[in-house]
Amino acid sequence: MHVIVVGSGIAGLSAALSAAETGARVTIVERASEGEHGGNTRYTEAYLRMKSMDEVADDFIDHFMANAGGYTDPSIEQEMVRDYADWSPLARSQSTVDPDLLGTFANKAGPTLRWLESNGLRFDFLPTAFITTTTTRLLPVGGGLAMVETLTAACMAKGVDFHFETTAQSLLRTAGKVTGLATSSGELDANAVILACGGFEGNPEMLARYVGASAINLRPVARGGHYNKGEGIRMALDIGAAPNGDFGSYHAEPIDPRSGIAEPAIFTFPYGILVNKAGERFTDEAPGTVDAHYESVTRRIYEQRDGIAWMIADAKLDDVPNWQKGSRTDQPPVTGASVAKLAEKIGISADALSTTIDTYNAACGEGRFKPLEKDGLSTVGLTPPKSNWARPIDQAPFRAWPVISANVFTFGGLKVDRDARVVDQDGRAIPGLYAAGETMGIYYRTYTGSTSVLRGAVFGRQAALHACGQLQ
């Protein structure tokens, strides 16, 4: 039995190690060089939406189902409450998060983490970058880097053959079955191919085609994302795979564009205001806790001219305990002794910014400021409103950070079943072909936070076990 795995992030490494543990011969094809491999996983803290090692968070299923797709035909939805074997081809190939897949995800999350633990990873409820939160998050000790390094070593110890600096190009087929992979270094024969090579956040052409022309204002959240150029998705679509996930969207995160570090997030904007290049506010900066709303706010930033905004705060930001943990950039704020001087430094009309701040200050209501919880301290009669933590910006020094939308990963990918088999447009599993991680599509509208690394681990393992005959 020979299994080819494309990609070496959490999905690919979980697949490769799982397959190797069954005794299969395993080859990993990876575009990056050794030591820079691992895709986005290498650079993430790898938050996991779990309430314990064995149970997903209480809101896990509900959040996914609230963002399960577009307006699905009710007659097709009704089929999905039956056993999967009774679904029509339309239901099996439907672009949605189906309950069969989601149930498997939730049920296998705990056992997958226990398997990772047995291979040397440790997990704990560690501090996060979010100052206010609504759900529970478990983290691997050492983050995604520990995952990559630990699983890479385990794979090598099991004899997995790594082909670094090698790009997957197309799938090989015989009589409808995937039988190998064409790469930049030649062709490889296999009994199964598992595509775990990310989305297309590193491919400007695919971003422009699917996300739109304004995608020029996006950039991957970390260096690993630049390696994700969409070949895995493209080569499967080329042989009739069904698409899944929201191809026109992506996971948005607010970052400082001046910084070159991984994930230089700005999660402190609820304690200030956001203005565009015209010096105008354009969104409610604080509709709720930052972990639940940063993505929707970041999407509004992306809609502004040139996809950029400025977070404006004053000296009172220091009233927020440990606010620095939510400002992960390595670049200092732009500061000014007055609003006019700050405006000059950031290239915004001083009159426009002063008018915006004066109008906002006059609308700030009365109440007690509670920085670590939703405090209802809101503006009155202001459009757009600010729903929490609304205090006047009136104490020097005034501070500003530029904020753009990072593309953490793209949502569009391949339709898979509970065993991570890629499904074609007629609802049939394509023999010999699997997908996991970002290459499989599962997200629509709004990202269910802290589930992407978990998705990679669960379905990477599912794919390998099914390919090697260990799942029924």
Summarize the entry for a quick read.
Helices cover 28% and strands 18% of the residues.
Features:
472 residues, alpha/beta, FAD/NAD(P)-binding domain, Flavocytochrome C3, Chain A, domain 1, 2 domains, six-stranded mixed β-sheet, 12 helices, 19 strands, 28% helix
Describe it.
There is one protein chain. By secondary structure, the protein is α/β, with parallel strands linked by helices. The protein folds into 2 domains: 2-249 and 411-467, FAD/NAD(P)-binding domain, CATH 3.50.50; 257-406, Flavocytochrome C3, Chain A, domain 1 (Alpha-Beta Complex). It is built from 12 helices and 19 strands. Strands 5-2-1-9-19-18 form a 6-stranded mixed sheet, sandwiched between helices. Strands 10, 12, 13, 14, 15 and 16 form a 6-stranded mixed sheet that branches. A 3-stranded antiparallel sheet has the order 6-7-8, with helices on one face. A hairpin with a 2-residue loop joins strand 7 (177-183) and strand 8. Helix 1 (10-21) packs parallel to helix 6 and helix 5 (99-118) packs across helix 12. It is elongated.
